[in-house]
């Protein structure tokens, strides 16, 4: 049903509560500890309050217990503790609220704002910001000299703010109104000594600056200088790569505040950061970091053995001297020995996680850069049909040919920056499957297994990037037919390189979207396609059974594009017959009207012209079948349309309905009536 639209990524939203959750008023076994712990929040002892906050924080990570706490007004109970006299209580209370916001989803975040969590949270953020540069903390408030409570509290509070602003527009309004930007940027200045805090701030800033024009006036020269300083930090750790990537995303969000004379250099700096992030081989990094972890654990085990031997010797010496005081066993550890019992910090795993997050973020922002204004349908059609756009810029896809890419809706400065930073080439590299050795490491290491999902996410985002670029491509600037065919072969290999077709929904949507855009481009210039009819039908058979309607739309469109090309050739009747039957079945049996409409649209394209198409249309009884189906489609639109589909979708479906009438009339003029 026309050209596909570019997908615009937004910040990841928090998921809603899972199935099987009880209603708020329904009692359960967790109600008793909830009531008991909430009562302890009012205890005069700071240690008891801290214990209660920590216990609540742990429980709130289990979604099924959240209703019991909400029923007892947990937000209003924890909120005042953000300004507790005890810094330890502040930190654990902020951590509990952070978990509530992260695990509760949109409705819980809305409830937190309704219950005025922003008032104490804003006060806490401003107070911590004011005390951030204090040389030392009051000994009455700090139990450990080596712990910076202010920065740790700030980190929890910033993450809480990020989660809430992600889900609630009122929270963003309060952020603007209360001038929170100044306090948040003050934390960013700690990037050289506390990169974790800086990353939390960068995540929050990227969220609150997206589609928030009211905040732009607050980004004065001083605020921009803070971002620029952190964005240009030279440290090479993966956490710093992530930090720079997130800040670059924030700078892109506020690009309207940058003077026109500086925009080119700023955009170039942004894309340079993305380029550096994407240039890092995640698979090799996993292999290297896994080896580093093994070596670290080996050295730690050897050191522990030596320490135990030393203790044996010391105990022997002590036993020989009856006058020496015995050391209590409890004093061999620090007084607060909980941290000694925790697993190692797994910095290697954190580094890899930071890298993959940086790469995914960079790819998502590039997608948004390709179509930053999210045009209306009319604007999109005008954009898609433009013949005057210099859309892509020269870059090497592989050693055998050039592939030229640059998004249409970007300025000359961005065009140049794309070229200078080799962005398209690096996007294509990320579309490949992850390193098999790295995958094996992740599969056999439980704590690293979560990286598999992140590796796959990077690949899918890269494919979506490719799709967005292809949608606004100028064929003459793509490097010619050979470059397009090389790209088609690459995408085909991704689909058919394994014994079974991929079943992952996210991958299927990304790869079919990219392939659809590519085939549209190739068909528009009569460039021969590389997929065999068998491959084409195998892909469509697999995709049409996907639970994702976008995948089904894509494969139907791919079939229509390929079929319309075949219809103009010779000796293609058998393949056209398979395509025609497939599309007719989808149109008549598909549960989604959008997919059914796409199948009809594909039929119109395939059988619009050509001797082979005319012959096959008669063989599969296309005209009588469509005439019989026409009232059924109209009835479905009346019954299902208004309640299930958007205004845009209904408009497109209405066009399909009219085109169906016209197509039937056209077929009748050809004399293809049933005998």
Automatic annotation (TrEMBL):
Bias kind Basic residues: ranges: 1-11
Give every SYO1-like TPR repeats domain span.
Answer: 413-669
Report the Pfam families cross-referenced here: TPR_SYO1
The entry assigns this protein to a family as follows: Belongs to the nuclear import and ribosome assembly adapter family.
Q: Which InterPro entries match?
A: ARM-like, ARM-type_fold, Armadillo, SYO1-like, TPR_SYO1
Q: What is the lineage of its organism?
A: Eukaryota, Metazoa, Chordata, Craniata, Vertebrata
Q: Which domain of life is it from?
A: Eukaryota
Q: Name one GO molecular function term.
A: unfolded protein binding
Annotated spans, Disordered:
1-35
Q: What is this protein called?
A: HEAT3 protein
Which GO BP terms, alphabetically? protein import into nucleus; ribosomal large subunit biogenesis
């Amino acid at each position: 049903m026309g050209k596909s639209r570019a997908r615009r990524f937004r910040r990841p939203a928090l998921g809603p509560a899972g199935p099987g959750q009880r209603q708020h008023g329904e009692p359960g076994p967790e109600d008793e500890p909830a009531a008991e712990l909430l009562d302890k929040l009012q205890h005069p002892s700071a240690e008891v309050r801290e214990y209660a906050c920590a216990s609540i924080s742990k429980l709130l990570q289990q979604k099924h217990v959240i209703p019991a706490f909400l029923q007892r007004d947990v937000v209003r109970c924890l909120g005042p503790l953000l300004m507790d006299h005890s810094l330890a209580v502040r930190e654990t209370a902020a951590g509990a609220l952070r978990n509530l916001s992260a695990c509760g989803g949109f409705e819980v975040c809305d409830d937190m704002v309704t219950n005025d969590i922003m008032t104490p949270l804003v006060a806490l953020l401003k107070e911590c910001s004011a005390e951030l540069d204090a040389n030392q903390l009051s000994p009455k408030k700090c139990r450990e000299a080596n712990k910076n409570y202010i920065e740790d509290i700030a980190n929890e509070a910033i993450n809480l703010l990020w989660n809430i602003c992600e889900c609630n527009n009122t929270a963003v309004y309060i952020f603007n109104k209360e001038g929170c930007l100044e306090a948040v940027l003050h934390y960013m200045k700690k990037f050289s000594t506390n990169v974790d805090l800086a990353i939390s701030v960068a995540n929050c800033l990227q969220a609150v600056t997206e589609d928030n024009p009211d905040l732009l006036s607050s980004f004065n020269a001083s605020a921009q200088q803070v971002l620029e300083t952190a964005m240009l930090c030279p440290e090479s750790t993966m956490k710093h790569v992530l930090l720079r990537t997130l800040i670059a995303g924030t700078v892109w969000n506020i690009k309207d505040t940058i003077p026109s004379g500086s925009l080119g250099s700023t955009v170039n700096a942004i894309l340079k950061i993305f380029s550096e992030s994407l240039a890092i081989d995640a698979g090799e990094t996993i292999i290297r970091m896994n080896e580093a972890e093994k070596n670290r654990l080996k050295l730690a085990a050897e050191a522990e053995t030596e320490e135990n031997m030393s203790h044996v010797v010391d105990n022997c010496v002590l036993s020989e001297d009856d006058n020496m005081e015995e050391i209590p066993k409890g004093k061999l550890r620090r007084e607060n020995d909980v941290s000694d019992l925790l697993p190692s910090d797994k910095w290697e795993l954190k580094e890899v996680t930071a890298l993959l997050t940086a790469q995914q973020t960079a790819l998502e922002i590039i997608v948004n850069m390709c179509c930053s204004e999210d045009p209306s349908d009319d604007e999109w059609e005008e954009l898609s049909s433009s013949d005057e756009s210099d859309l892509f810029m020269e870059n090497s896809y592989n050693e055998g040919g050039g592939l030229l890419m640059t998004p249409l809706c970007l300025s000359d400065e961005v065009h140049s920056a794309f070229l200078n930073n080799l962005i398209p080439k690096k996007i294509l590299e990320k579309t490949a499957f992850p390193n098999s050795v790295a995958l094996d490491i992740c599969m056999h290491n439980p704590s690293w297994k979560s990286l598999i999902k992140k590796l796959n996410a990077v690949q899918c985002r890269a494919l979506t990037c490719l799709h967005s670029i292809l949608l606004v491509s100028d064929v003459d600037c793509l490097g010619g037919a050979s470059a397009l065919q090389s790209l088609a072969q690459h995408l085909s290999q991704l689909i058919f390189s394994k014994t079974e077709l991929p079943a992952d929904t996210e991958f299927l949507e990304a790869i079919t979207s990219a392939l659809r855009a590519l085939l549209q481009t190739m068909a528009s210039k009569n460039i021969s396609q590389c997929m065999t009819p068998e491959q084409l039908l195998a892909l469509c058979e697999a995709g049409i059974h996907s639970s994702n309607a976008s995948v089904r739309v894509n494969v139907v469109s791919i079939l229509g594009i390929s079929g319309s090309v075949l219809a103009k050739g010779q000796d293609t009747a058998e393949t056209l017959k398979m395509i025609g039957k497939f599309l007719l079945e989808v149109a008549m049996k598909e549960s989604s009207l959008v997919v059914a409409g796409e199948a009809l649209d594909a039929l119109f394209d395939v059988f619009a012209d050509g001797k082979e198409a005319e012959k096959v249309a008669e063989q599969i009884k296309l005209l009588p079948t469509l005439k019989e189906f026409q009232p059924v489609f109209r009835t479905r639109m009346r019954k299902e349309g208004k309640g299930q589909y958007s205004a845009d979708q209904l408009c497109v479906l209405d066009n399909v309905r009219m085109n169906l009438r016209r197509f039937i009339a056209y077929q009748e003029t050809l004399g293809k009536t049933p005998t």
